[in-house]
Amino acid sequence: MLIKKMFRRQWWLMTLIVVSAVVFCIWAGFWQLERRDYKRQLNARMAEQWQLAPFDLNRTPLPVDLAELEYRRVEVQGTFDYERQIILKNDTRNQTPGVNLITPLVLEDGRAILVARGWLSLDKAAPELWRDYDEPAGTRIVGLIQESQQLPGAARPTAPQSEWFRVDIDAIAVQLPYELLPAFVAMLPEPGRNFYQLPVRTEPPTPYDEFMHVGYTVQWFAFAAIFGFGYIQFLIYDERRQKRLAAQPASVAVGPPVTVQE
Question: Model's pTM, two decimal places?
């Protein structure tokens, strides 16, 4: 009886809306479970890659697919070319505007790799202050490999510049006298380095929150139950109300008072 009521002419549209809402909520719940599994896989890969020994760029060439080095530390040693360092603009940390100081590191074979040495606030980012942050001689750089940040269709500068909005390696290489490796390194903090010491290094990757998706899954399944169970309860209530109205005695119609003329 209740199923027939759901598909009557006056109810079929509402039934369609509720069924669609229930189906969507169930799909969204399972999608959140898939997101949890995906992040779980990322966390497992991150932990596995981080435990590997740093990839030595001085001894081993970069792989063609840089995804092989995702979440893995790389190390490299060379000589910083401070005279040709640049900054990456619009780098905001904790809502504080700043820049990222990027310096070419020249290797023994004459090639170089760009190293993002860390963040500086705008008041510390004047070019005359850059040399205050020179690294100790012979420092072995440890960081994370990053792909070139290219913007398709973007016009490349026609003259050398020290301020950039992205690390476009091919564009930056034009103004340098040596070949650049096709990736750059985001420098990680050295052991014992103060977090606030300038330049502020790139933070190590942190595990993704996979448990948040469990809560979202429960919410979506709860919404599905509320829509489905709530709609059924509403139909039951309406059915009972209709039966009560039908069981009431018909009321006697009372007309207007009749005036008797003498």
Answer: 0.77
